[in-house]
Amino acid sequence: DTYSKNLKTDVLIVGAGFGGIYLMHKLRQLGFQCKIYEAGKGLGGIWHWNCYPGARVDTQVPIYEYSLPEVWKDWTWSERYPGFAELRKYFEHVDQKLGIRKDVAFDTRVVGAQFDKPSAKWIVETEDGRTAKARYLLLATGFAAKRHFPGWPGLDRFKGEIHHSSFWPDAGVDVKDKRVAVIGTGSTGVQIAQETAKTAGSVTVFQRTPNLALPMQQKPLTREEQMDRKAQYPEIYKNRMTTFAGFQYDFIDKNTYDDTPEAREAFYEKCFENGGFEFWLANYKDLLFDAEANRAAYDFWAKKTRARISDPRKRDILAPVEPPHAFGTKRPSLEQNYYEMLDRAENDVVDIKKTPIVEVTETGLKTADGKHREFDVVALATGFDSVTGGMKNMGLKDVDGVPLSEKWKTGTWSYLGMTCAGFPNMFFLYGAQGPTAFSNGPSCVECQGDWIVDAMKKLRDEDIQYCDATREAEEGWRRRVTELSDKTLFPGTSSWYMGANVPGKPREQLNYAGGIPLYEQECREALDNGFRGFVTA
Ligand code: NA7
Q1: What does the alpha-carbon distance between residue 431 and residue 499 come to, in Å, rounded to a whole number?
Q2: How much is the pLDDT for 2?
Q3: What region holds the FAD/NAD(P)-binding domain (predicted)?
Q4: Residue nearest to atom 30 of ligand 1 (CA)
């Protein structure tokens, strides 16, 4: 069985979130025997780990779900942007339909893996001393498998409750009338702050960089309206693969200054009203390429947001007149009354770019200006060693025994954002140098998952033992990823997209910035041309 000390299987998948489950389902249909190793206690990947207050997906349903008819047919949601509890229920539903759980070993963390060329098998080791042998190793570990904890002295000294967002206790933390500190203003920090503020005595947000957050426009959904729409789902899912980011909308075919100022203002307004990422991903097509166009969008955002904050000090910290970075080159969070909430007298925002946190004490946080603030609960929403951290942390070694963490020490090399030279028959998805951070998760996973499944089918049909990317192909892919990114405004901003959120991490574009359709085309070409860029044996 899945937990046996010496597991043998065709395919070992690591991770039971959107990616791992999709791969297992598709490969089973082709007759591959698959097992999943999952470090957590349940299905759902990030939705298993993320149970912090307010954890919620920023992509609308039904875009944020599988395109598999057997799964979507009779499933409906209670709101446009569901919270983690409902997403966990969704994964139970997926399990009922696809029967995943019986082939998953939970609480099973991979700590070592190497491909043995003579037997053409991966040998995979777990933390508790088990060994698995598999022809294929598929990594579906997501882009946020390794948490980032800043190195402040005293982190373990705090006497109140202190938790990283993705280690939030399942039972929750009572914040009623408590003094809550939230450190970090990524998607996570914004969500924790606005949710805890509903019951906490006070919320203080420690902000290094303002989140250029957009109105979510949350809406309850009825079962009837969703069931009525089901006939359109096949079309919706087909269309999402034709858009840049795998959404239901795309950048419009117009540049910012093609419109008159009035028309532009009206268009921006409409994006805000529709809510979600429309102001980001359905904006003018030069938004992420042209600094001046980007500034116009920023100015609109700042005008709208500043009007919601009456306290001038808070207004300048949360929505400064001068942009902290080009709009959309860091991930905007979707907010619900975030600005009105922070504007209230009992809540506060501290600019830790000006006065960094220098120490955690038994009772609170000390900043560089010597100020000490006391708290009962501290939420660390400081993010992740994103995109590459998880894979570097699994004890993976190439055929010569060189750790992946060494190979990726000074930069990241992959081929097609799904394979690595020296790691035969290993495929990964939703990771480095794929569309990952610039796409809707399920769309990216299905695009890459289908490619991986087709590649494995081809290997089997053509009786090939293994394929291994060449170093030249990797160099070419790295150049491609860089070249696509260099045309955009992304490289000018310090973000986790660029590896710039973790001290000492090489600064480089970690994601493929050409959009899903172009990405899919490039990957298909490699496969259709007889495994171009791979050696096969
Ligand atoms: P993010 O987006 O990486 O946000 C982390 C936040 O923590 C961000 O505001 C950082 O400021 C801040 N941070 C990190 N380290 C420090 C230190 N040392 N001092 C002060 N502030 C710090 O993580 P999330 O969990 O919010 O979101 C991750 C992704 O998951 C998200 O994009 C979605 O796709 C889902 P900074 O901006 O670097 O100045």
Answers
A1: 13
A2: 87
A3: 10-226
A4: 187
Average pLDDT of adjacent 10-residue blocks, the chain of 537 residues = 92 98 98 98 96 97 98 98 98 98 98 97 97 98 93 94 95 97 98 98 98 98 98 98 97 98 98 98 98 98 98 98 98 97 98 97 98 98 96 97 97 98 98 97 98 98 97 98 98 96 95 98 97 97
Residue 382 alpha carbon to ligand 1 centre in Å: 5
Asked whether the beta carbons of 14 and 110 are under 8 A apart, the reply is: yes
Q: How far, in Å, CA of 305 to CA of 302, rounded?
A: 5
**What is the whole-number distance in angstroms between the Cα of residue 184 and the centre of ligand 1?**
5
pLDDT at residue 281 in the model: 97
- Single out the residue of 472, 381, 389, 403 nearest to residue 163, CA to CA: 381
Give the mutation target among 501, 507, 510 for probing the ligand 1 site: most ligand atoms within 8 A of CB: 501
DSSP 251-319: -BSS-GGGS-HHHHHHHHHHHHHH-TTHHHHSSBTTTTT-HHHHHHHHHHHHHHHHTT---HHHHHHHS
Shortest CA distance to 174 belongs to which of 155, 207, 202, 196? Answer: 196
pTM of the predicted protein model: 0.97
Tokens of 346: 């009992």
Task: Tell me which residues have their CB closer than 6 angstroms to ligand 1.
Answer: 144, 150, 165, 183-189, 208-209, 331, 352, 381-383, 496, 501
Distance (Å, whole) CA 203 – CA 493: 28
Tell me, in angstroms, the distance from the centre of ligand 1 to residue 381's CA: 6
Nearest protein Cα to ligand 1, atom 35: 187
